[in-house]
Amino acid sequence: MAHSESPPKRSATGRKKPVSSWQISELVLYLKQNGRKPDLNSQTVFLANPAEKIQIDQIIQNYLWAGAVRALAGSSIGISGAEEGFPASFLQDERANYTTRSLTFILADEERPFIPGESPPWFCRGNIKCSLQHYLISFDFFLHLPMEFEIGKIIELLADPLFCGNPPNLSIEPYGEDEHLMVVSFSEGSGADWGLEGFEKAGQALEQKVIKNLEVIEAVHQLEQDYTSVRWFQELQKALREAYQAY
Q1: In 3-state terms, what secondary structure has residue 100?
Q2: Which of 63, 117, 143, 214 could make an S-S bridge to 203, C-beta 3.0–4.6 Å?
Q3: Which letter does DSSP use for residue 215 in this model?
Q4: What is the pTM of this model?
C-alpha cells in the first residue's frame, strides 16, 4: 500500500503553523540590532541568505581569490591589506535580486606604498561580485601624469577606438601642497552565469585580468623614467588596450 504524505501540522487552535524561513530569522535579528535607532521606521531593510553567503564566500576564496594569488606570485605588487592571506573582512553583501557578495581589493607596490605626495603614478582597484547564479569581475585603473605631459598623447588615449564602448576619462587632481596631476581613468568588467563557466574558469579569468594590469603597471613604471619616451608611451597604450579594450 502506498504511503500518503503527512498532513501539515496544526496548532491547538486548528490553524496551520507558519513555516519558518531565513528571511524571518534575519529580519528578527535586524530589528533586534537596530530597534533603538530613531530612524528605523524610515529605513529600507535588506536581507541576504546566510547559508548562501557561506557558499559564495567559499567560491570567492577557493577559486577567484586563488586566481589573483597565482597572478601575483613572485611580484612586488600585492593586494593592500591582504598580507596575512585571504581578507575575509573585505567581503560585503550586495543589494541584488539574489544573495550576492562582493570583494573590493587594491593592488599595491610593497616597494612604493601609497603615501600622500609620494605614491606611484597609478592606482588599480579590482572588484568581484558573486552569487550562486553568476559572477562579475571588474577593474578600474587610474593613470597619473604630470601637468607638463604632452596633451596630444592623452588625447590619443581618450580617442582610441578600442576604448570607444567604454571610453577613459580625464580629470585634474591635486598632488601634494601646490601641484596637480592629470588623471586618465579606465574601467572594464566581464562575467558569466555558472551554467556557462565553472568556478575554475572564473578563477582563470581573474588571474588573466590581474596579469594584464601588472603589464600596465610595468609600462607606467618605464614611462615614469622618461615621460617623453615614444617607445614606452606606445608600450603603455598597448598594455592598456589589452586590459581595458571595450571589444
Answers
A1: strand
A2: 63
A3: H
A4: 0.86
